[in-house]
Amino acid sequence: MIVVFDGKCLLCNGWVQFLLRHDRQGRIRFASMQGQEGVRLLREAGLSASEGLQTLLVMEGGKSWQRTSAILRVLHRLGWPWRLAWVGWLVPAPLRDALYRWVARNRYRIWGRSEVCMVPAPEHAGRFLD
Fold it and tell me: What does the pLDDT read at residue 100?
């Protein structure tokens, strides 16, 4: 499983840090959408790496998920107790994704933005594709 995230978004970086802490088996890998591999994966999923892109992308086994579907898929991968978030699938995607889009549009204003992409700690560097 590969999570493609906005490396300049502080909320997104917090999400990656959360995943690094809770993915005890180390099966999730990461690519910043500002990096070459992230751009390639976005293109493969039919997305553009423009500044205005407002989605999290998860790729696994030749399939891709965006927005809340991506979050729910990743939480399921973490195992218990995070797997309980799977009940989120009971909420219709248009409702889930409306909230996601609002957060995505306002993420820089609320959580902030870094002018440089996150640099992983040495013990996690091998899980980052670029």
Answer: 94
